[in-house]
Design goal:
Keywords: Aminotransferase, Pyridoxal phosphate, Transferase. The chain is an alpha/beta fold. It is built from 12 helices and 15 strands. It has 2 domains: 244 residues, Aspartate Aminotransferase, domain 2 (3-Layer(aba) Sandwich); 125 residues, Alpha-Beta Complex (Aspartate Aminotransferase, domain 1), CATH 3.90.1150.10. Strand 8 and strand 9 form a beta hairpin. The structure holds pyridoxal-5'-phosphate (PLP).
């Protein structure tokens, strides 16, 4: 079986988890602090705050950006449902706009008509690791005085050409970026998340809110020779990352450059191999954007049945997934009004599939995937109207 992904983990991660377990301090302690520092360095961010996952990171990011009940957040439907859910956790409504079919990311030209008097933030998604058009997004956000929140769940190790140099996603270019360490992403801690921001006061609020809004953290009380009592001045959350996870994350960060280089080499070979498969379109990478290829999304020929292609692949021992979901089509979002056409989002969900891609993938496995895809497209071609009649 060729899976969608295989986490790159081994003895260094196991030893790191062991080290944390035997240290006597297993949650949000010294390993988390070190992970935050090393992560900030890796993405060139002034501040990094670790949390339990990217969904909780998005919740804190939006909340601290000032998103409250009655507000609206301009974002995409074409994303994992956590993006829309985080807006709902704040009591706000997502306002969905369509994607640019070339990059699967929010189309900057559609944002301004979705901004209204209740808009409180723009939430862009670097979908599947491909950076958004950040320059345009930052300009729109500035012009309207709105914070720009980046859902960078998939985008660690991706980069944009900015002011003449390649800059990592997460500096951040907007106001705050949120990352995921779920096993389906490029590096993993089992579960985990990180917020990076340019605002020192936002970072302080994330640290407070992730631990019940406790005024004196346990680490501080533990290290103090004076008795002190904490207080709780607002509603907080338990969004802590454990030291066991952070220790693993530090090892994963060391692997990041190698992982991204491998993923890019495999993506580049996919592009070559797919050129020989009629009708299948490989994803594009604009010259000013550099993807980590967290997911490799191909567009199927118009006349094939998506589920049929995926079933053929599965029968051949190859995993695949449909295109990225559209949140507005889910019952969970039934009460979210749709004011703007989402036809490119829907077409991407229905007409694309994601292919396996992981650093340890062999050339032989890649060849098998592409050969099976070619056969699957032939077999799953829908009968032409004339034949069907
Ligand atoms: C995976 C993902 C999330 C959620 O990340 P978790 O760490 O699982 O909470 C959010 N947004 C996008 C775009 C994702 O792909």
């Amino acid at each position: 079986m060729i899976p969608m992904t295989r986490p790159e983990m081994g003895e260094p991660e196991a030893a790191a988890a062991r080290r944390a377990i035997l240290s006597g301090w297993v949650t949000q302690g010294p390993e988390v602090a070190a992970f935050e520092q090393e992560f900030a360095q890796a993405v060139q961010a002034p501040h990094a705050c670790a949390v339990s996952n990217c969904t909780t990171a998005l919740h804190l990011a939006l909340r601290v950006a000032g998103v409250l009940p009655g507000h609206e957040v301009v974002t995409v439907s074409h994303s994992f449902i956590a993006t829309a859910n985080a807006v709902r956790y704040c009591g706000a409504m997502p306002v969905f706009v369509d994607i640019d079919p070339a990059t699967f990311n929010i189309d900057p030209r559609r944002i301004e008509r979705a901004i209204g008097p209740r808009t409180r933030a723009i939430l862009c998604v670097h979908q599947m690791g491909m950076p958004c058009e950040l320059q345009a997004l930052v300009e729109i956000a500035r012009r309207h005085g709105l914070p720009l929140v980046e859902d960078a769940a998939c985008a660690i190790g991706s980069a944009v050409l900015w002011a003449g140099e390649w800059q990592p996603i997460g500096r951040p270019h907007g106001d705050v970026a949120c990352f995921s360490f779920h096993p389906r992403k490029v590096v993993t801690t089992g579960d985990g998340g990180m917020l990076t921001t340019r605002h020192a006061d936002w970072d302080r609020q994330y640290r407070l809110l992730r631990q019940h809004a406790m005024s004196v953290p346990d680490t501080v009380r533990h290290a103090s020779d004076r008795v002190s009592f904490e207080h709780y001045d607002q509603l907080g959350f338990n969004y802590r990352l454990t030291d066991i996870q952070a220790a693993v994350g530090r090892e994963q960060l060391r692997r990041l450059p190698g992982i991204v280089a491998r993923r890019r080499a495999i993506a580049s070979r996919y592009r070559q191999l797919l050129a020989a498969v009629p009708g299948v379109r490989a994803p594009a990478e604009p010259a000013h954007l550099r993807s980590n290829w967290q997911s490799y999304c191909v567009r199927l020929p118009a006349d094939v049945d998506q589920a049929g292609v995926m079933q053929h692949l599965l029968d051949a021992g190859i995993a695949s997934r449909r295109g990225i979901m559209c949140s507005h089509r889910e019952a969970a979002c039934a009460d979210v009004p749709v004011h703007h056409a989402l036809k490119h989002s829907e077409a991407a969900q229905d007409g694309c599939i994601l292919l396996p891609l992981y650093p340890s993938m062999t050339q032989d496995e890649q060849r098998q995937v592409v050969d099976a895809l070619a056969a699957a497209c032939r077999a799953a071609a829908r009968p032409k109207a004339a034949d069907a009649a």
